[in-house]
Amino acid sequence: MATAVIESPPDYSDLLEPSIESLPRKEATQRLLTLAAAATEETERHAYADRVVELNMQIAVDVARRYRSRGVSIEDLEQVAYLGLVKAVRGFDPERATDFLSYAVPTIRGEVRRYFRDHGWVVRPPRTVQQAQARITAVESDLCQELGRAPRPTEIAARLDLDLDLVVEALAANGCFAPTSLDSTPAEGESAIGDRLGDDDASFDSAEARVALKPLMGHLDRRERIMLEMRFFKGATQSEIGEVLGITQMQVSRLLSALLARLRDELGAV
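The structure corresponding to this sequence follows.
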């Protein structure tokens, strides 16, 4: 009875020319990608692709680190970036472009952004912005390969037939992944953001009052505006107001009382 012979899978390690190892990363990457595209066997193609991934892993790490401190661990980001690198290697076409990084970096960045979109939101932007960001991520890699560089917002808007303002807003939505700490400082030597806020609730009460009164103030005539401004913003007396308006202090008192009563009624009806 004949014994079956199990052949080992072919070893293509010898196909990785020794001279390639001595080339700079960019040139070695391009050479390996060209060999992978010309390979006739899948195992051979994978051997070249795996080497490209190994050569460019630091690029993926660098992209991932740009998104650190945004609420997702750097280890998770690096794993996602590696996945993006593998996708870039598999999707790169040497006949359409010669610079691998101009295609790989946006692809890796898109994969990281997609991960944030699915897992990292702290403050969620409107759904239209989220949807636009997903479409931008999907098309960005193709545009990079076609243009040989990162696409401009205008080019993305034209490709997706989206409003330019929406594209810009979606590209800026990365800041929603994690809020800025109140302990952070805008620049070295400046006070923390939290220190610039009010010490108590008075500033918030004032802001709320201003929002409520704003539509009512639009109905006031010039004399009424002057009275309110002088009395409550400049601290003028009723006599001083009367001198400016050419009326008596008693008239100012009656007018102010009537005006405040009207504002209270209108505010209560809102």
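Residues 124 and 141 are 25 Å apart (CA to CA).
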